[in-house]
Amino acid sequence: GTQYAPEVALGARYGQVSYLTEEGVAELDSMGVTVKTAASWAGTFTLGGKVDTDVARNASRAYTDMQASAHWVSIGDSPPRGGTESELQAWAGATQKRPLLVRYTLASICAL
């Protein structure tokens, strides 16, 4: 080996990769909401969270309805869908007890 790992991140990751239609992007834009914000709200709803505004609910619904395609990605345990706060905290605790490699960097041993 000519390299070592000076930085390693352990834990879990869970997320969704989705592609929006052009119409979906335009609809969110007409609402004054960015795709990033709508995706965040949609993710919150998917995991059982709540948002108190009509704008957030409508943007989340538009984001979900206008997806051209979507798939879930997971490293480690997946959080419970629609879970209560205590279930989500239990998931977070479980990932701390059984962490997986999430990210790392490599450097040349010549740099030592």
Automatic annotation (TrEMBL):
Pfam families the UniProt entry points to? MACPF (PF01823)
Q: Where does the signal sequence lie?
A: none
Q: Which domain of life is it from?
A: Eukaryota
| Segments forming domain MACPF | 1-112
Please give the name of this protein.
MACPF domain-containing protein
